[in-house]
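Dear Dr. H.,

I hope your travels went smoothly. While you were away I took the liberty of generating a structure for the chain from your last submission, since the lab meeting agenda had it listed for discussion. I wanted you to have the full record in hand beforehand rather than looking at slides cold. The sequence, exactly as received, is reproduced here:
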Amino acid sequence: MTFPIEEIYRTEGVPEYTFVRPPNFNELLVDLRNPGKPMVVEGQSGTGKTTTVRKIIERVLPDRKFEYLSARKAADVARIIQLAQQGGPGAYVIDDFHRLANDIQEQLGNIAKIAAEENDPAAHPKVVLIGINRVGSELIHFVPDVAKRVGIHRIQPADETGTLQLIEKGEEKLNIEIEGKQNIFEESRGDYWVTQLLCQMICLLEDVTETAQEKRTVHFDVAITRKRVRDRLHHTYNEAVTEFCRGKRFRSSNDPYFKLLREVSRQESSIVDLQMLANAAPEVKGSINNVKEKRLSVLLDSKPICGRYFYYNSDTKNFAIEDPALFYYLKHLDWEALRQECGFKHTDKDYEFDFSLSFAGENRDLTKQIASQLEVMDCSVFFDELFENNYLGKAWAKTFEEIFKQRSRLVICVLDQAHREKIWPTFERECFTPRVADEAVIPIYLDDTVFPGIPQDIVGIKFTRDPEKALEDQVTDEIVFRLLARLDDV
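The corresponding predicted structure, in token form, is as follows:
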């Protein structure tokens, strides 16, 4: 019998001939077969979570009518919300569970808990929740006593034996033998989907498009195969990657998204905790901290093409590249070429903040308006109110010293008599005054007060409140646009 290559090594849909059971297949089967037991199936992208669930249902539970719903589809989300709010009988597989809003996750967790407690399929739904790593732990976080009653299963990437089983099943159907197939595991790292893609490309490079009439040996050249796969994926992912790296508003110095993505591509897993990553990678810690609180979520919300491929939970700080092909593409990307394509300058220093704001309490409203508008323009701003919770238990003196001396690209100081007389503003001036020589300090003059260490000939912004004009508009026209222009010139 003749089989086309795309049906054997499948890169779309559920593989029919090259499916390999994960080690915990039977545990999944038993919990799926139990009509009253809710389930969570988690694992990184490409581990075959959805494929495994579908295979069990198709082969073992063909008479059970499961409704498949995905948090990626707007129509399905409406159905999921209805289920979360109303419950009721039925069997549901809810994919991409982690993409649901926290309140919906919590409602589904409560339904799962009640269904497990009462074990009455006629009254409560059978729910199978599928998502990336830590879905189970996040569900338990929302509904703490649900763990004992729900089957939580983690599907790991294949080991070398499992990878070879997948390859050999395809070899048998195509009547071929891949020379050097042991090296495919090193290239795919056990990712089922990437293994399928590599095997398909190896065959295509050797002109194998269907089952060979006579036994054939095909050769696997890692470098050639990798390049062809990367070139093939470039057309699919380049726009999304470029848009992510350039951020919500492009500036040649606004590269923290680029640095974050490059660092994630160097990890073993496509799912990372950004707090842990920042601590483990001091050379890009500033960039990661620069975006992980708010800016990353805003970017994914504002650019649908980025939200399609990247996931971020600002509460847990979990960032994920959900498409295994994209993760493979990023791992083998020419990052210097991408930097040039994006238009970023080369910078030796990694800053956590684009601007830090120094002011006296009398000018808090004005400074808050400046900070708010800069944030809207995709700038990272240190304004004390925004970070008070982050520094609980820490000494402000040490924190301020680090921020004004090292962790901010530019310092904005709102200067007047109050700034000179107050203790904290004076301490801040002592921290940032040495940076005047580096042209990193931008004064906003509210009066003619003279400050030691800040020469009077430094070009700053003279600002006088106009009672006839809205503060927001005046700040935009006279301050924010000028600050952005200066940042673009850094």
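Two observations you may find useful: The mean pLDDT is 89. DSSP finds 23 helices and 15 strands in the chain.

With kind regards,
E. W.
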